[in-house]
Write a structure and sequence with these properties.
The complex is a heterodimer of chains A (228) and B (260).
Chain A: E1 4-7, H1 9-17, H2 23-31, E2 34-37, H3 39-47, H4 56-67, E3 72-73, H5 79-90, E4 93-95, E5 98-99, H6 105-117, E6 121-123, H7 127-134, H8 136-147, E7 151-153, H9 155-164, E8 169-171, H10 173-182, H11 196-210, H12 217-227
Parallel strand pairs in A: 1-2, 1-6, 2-3, 6-8
Antiparallel strand pairs in A: 4-5, 4-7
Chain B: H1 7-10, H2 38-46, H3 55-61, H4 78-97, H5 102-120, H6 123-138, H7 144-162, H8 166-183, H9 185-208, H10 213-220, H11 224-231, H12 246-256
Helix pairs in contact in B: 4-5, 4-6, 4-7, 5-6, 6-9, 7-8, 8-9, 9-10, 9-11, 10-11
Classes of the chains: A alpha/beta (228), B mainly alpha (260).
């Protein structure tokens, strides 16, 4: 079976904004499989920003990765399946009697496609869907805290969603960057100072966080501890 | 009629029109439109976003006097109407106080209003929230007489909304933006930036409420790029601990890339 990895829009945005997207072709080679994006993700990464002055060049950078084959478009996405999962997710929680529509069907595409190919690996920086997949109770807690209101949970829907997606494995752009560091791909930036390695790792991890990867500072510390 | 939104409907494009109210373009591209006249397009930008909800009816009517049209304007939900009235009353009270903390109070009001946006996903509500926030940002530059005019216009907007006269409400909102734009050249210049910043700021709050990036960006008429680059730089979105331990996630990544 081919090795596949599906990318949500978030990690690509984080890498492009952090000027670390050049890692993608090298990582793909090391991975030895396909890096896929879905049409909805391509729309968000290229078609939309190309019409926005501020992100025009970023869109072209992503387009280059597509043209060169680093990122491939996975066309065979079941829209109905994405929609179905979106409906289940968005009927799981109510606040003040109102359904909380947390997720879009486009965002489900990468997950649905990953399940379809059996690879089940998704690179996703976005916290909401990740939290929903990995710990739906935590999702409920988040809503309760943020809205300062009780959350009515449809346990059946909530658990149905998580059950269907339990095989999904999620990594983030920050882990890609950490792996790149571990592989020595970033060594050209190693400063010749005392604690240079730590400085390098710290800088790339924080750059990724500041450019949108949902990662806590505590997790960054943990990565550093594990890799240094 | 219930309203459901998705970023597909919104198109997600950034469209800051001269009147600005609708953050999202009207869904005209799939509408059979025999007469795509300029007037029709212009009118689209003058109307309340709630009118975007029925493109077929809208298209049929847009070559006519859309602003005065009443039969398509009953789409605003009652709960939204009440919320907007409440927000506008509070905004008017704040403006009339004339104290030094007007900006701050308007910002606080807007922060409160965004909570309803998260629940209702309503474009009219989004417009008012963005309007109030933007007003908070530019009010210090506005001369007192303009602020007074603005307060009067808010009064009209409240009155028309209470009377369910949406077309006149839309005109009042349009006037509010005109007053702000005309008050000062700098304000005019500043306003578009402020509107953009307001949308990003409010979008980030929606993220904080638990909405996904796509959902929050779509609601505010932003791209994911706008929101993600802002979200990464704010600490307000950090929430508790991750369930999956970092060691586990990192080891998974290491094994996937054979970097062990």
């Amino acid at each position: 079976m081919d090795k596949n990895m599906f990318f949500d829009a978030g990690p690509i945005i984080s890498l492009v904004m952090s000027r670390l997207d050049w890692l993608l072709p090298i990582l793909k080679e090391k991975f030895g499989g396909h890096f896929y994006i879905t049409p909805a993700v391509k729309k968000e990464l290229v078609d939309r920003p190309i019409g926005i002055k501020r992100f025009e060049f970023e869109a072209l950078q992503v387009l280059k990765h597509i043209s060169e084959g680093t990122l491939e478009i996975y066309e065979d996405v079941s829209e109905s399946r994405s929609k179905q999962l979106q409906v289940v997710a968005n009927s799981s929680f109510k606040i003040k009697g109102k359904r909380m529509e947390l997720i879009q069907s486009g965002e489900m595409e990468s997950v649905v496609a990953a399940m379809k190919t059996g690879s089940n690996t998704v690179v996703m920086d976005e916290r909401t869907l990740r939290l929903f997949i990995e710990d739906n109770k935590q999702m409920e807690k988040l809503l309760e805290i943020r809205f300062k209101n009780p959350v009515e949970t449809n346990l059946q829907k909530r658990d149905l969603f998580s059950e269907q997606l339990k095989s999904i494995k999620i990594i983030r752009s920050i882990e890609l960057v950490a792996v790149a560091y571990k592989m020595g791909l970033l060594d050209a930036y190693l400063p010749k100072i005392k604690g240079g390695k730590e400085k390098l790792l710290d800088s790339v991890l924080w750059a990724t966080k500041f450019n949108g990867c949902a990662v806590t500072s505590q997790e960054i510390d943990e990565i550093k501890e594990l890799l240094l | 009629m219930s309203q459901r939104f998705s970023s597909k409907q919104f198109g997600g494009k950034q469209q800051v029109s001269e009147i600005i109210i609708p953050v999202i373009p009207a869904p005209t591209k799939n509408i059979p439109n025999k007469k795509s006249n300029k007037v029709g397009k212009k009118i689209l930008w003058f109307i309340s976003p709630s009118n975007h909800l029925n493109p077929y009816k809208l298209n049929r009517l847009k070559s006519k006097t859309l602003i005065k049209c009443k039969n398509i304007l009953s789409l605003m939900k009652e709960v939204v109407r009440k919320e907007i009235v409440k927000d506008l009353i509070q905004a008017q009270e704040i403006l009339n106080k004339k104290d030094s903390s007007i900006s701050l109070q308007l910002k606080e009001l807007s922060d409160h209003a965004i909570e309803d946006v998260a629940l209702q996903k309503d474009l009219d509500l989004i417009s008012v929230t963005v309007l109030i926030y933007s007003l908070g940002k530019v009010i210090q530059r506005m001369p007192p007489e303009e602020i007074k005019d603005l307060s009067v216009e808010i009064g009209f907007a409240i009155k028309f909304l209470k009377e369910n006269s949406y077309s006149r409400y839309n005109k009042a909102v349009k006037s509010m933006f005109n007053i702000i734009r005309k008050s000062d050249a700098k304000v005019k210049l500043h306003l578009q930036d402020v509107m953009q910043a307001a949308k990003i700021k409010k979008g980030a709050i929606l993220l904080g409420k638990g909405l996904s990036i796509g959902q929050a960006a779509g609601l505010m008429g932003l791209s994911n790029w706008d929101l993600q680059s802002y979200a990464g730089k704010t600490t307000m979105l950090e929430f508790g601990k991750e369930t999956v331990k970092e060691g586990h996630r990192l080891n998974l990544a290491i094994s996937l890339f054979g970097a062990g």
